[in-house]
Amino acid sequence: MSDICLESRYFVRMTEAVIDLTIPAYSAADKNVWIDKEEAMGILKITSNTTLQKHRDRDDFDYSKVSSKHFLYYKPSIISFIEKKANR
Q1: Residue 65: helix, strand or coil by DSSP?
Q2: Is residue 2 part of a domain?
Q3: CATH number of the domain residue 82 falls in
Q4: Residue 73's closest CA among 45, 41, 35?
Q5: How many CB atoms lie within 10 A of CB 46?
Q6: Distance between CA 37 and CA 66 in Å, rounded?
Q7: 56 pLDDT exceeds 60?
Q8: Among residues 70, 9, 78, which one has the least CA distance to residue 46?
Q9: Is the pTM for the entire model greater than 0.90?
Q10: Residue 40 class from Cβ within 10 Å (0-12 exposed, 13-18 middle, 19+ buried)?
Q11: What pLDDT was estimated at residue 25?
Q12: Which of 1, 17, 42, 87, CA to CA, is 20 to 30 A from 81?
């Protein structure tokens, strides 16, 4: 078995292409639901990588580990997390 290494941007493009081929109703607006660390931190209004990691450790929102040090975050899940916190 051999390993294949891809940069995360190529992985995301490849995944989107597979989704486009398998789910025709998948719209362009839905493609931006997986966001990078910087955008996630901006939405959460945090500046610390450690705080973001604590949220991951507590499973506060959905994320995907693309490589050993790169994560993508599910934007609707982050927004839901913020809304739950606001309603307390």
Answers
A1: strand
A2: no
A3: 1.10.1660
A4: 35
A5: 14
A6: 12
A7: yes
A8: 78
A9: no
A10: buried
A11: 55
A12: 17
3-state secondary structure of 84: helix
Higher pLDDT, 23 or 83: 83
56, part of any domain: yes
Residue 23: pLDDT above 70? Answer: no
DSSP helix/strand/coil, 20:
helix
Mean pLDDT estimate for the chain: 85
The set of residues, in sequence order, having a beta carbon less than 8 Å from that of 60 and lying 6+ positions away, is 81
Per the listing, tokens 């307390």 go with 88
Q: Is there a domain that residue 3 lies in?
A: no
* 78 three-state secondary structure: helix
Q: Is residue 1 domain-resident? A: no
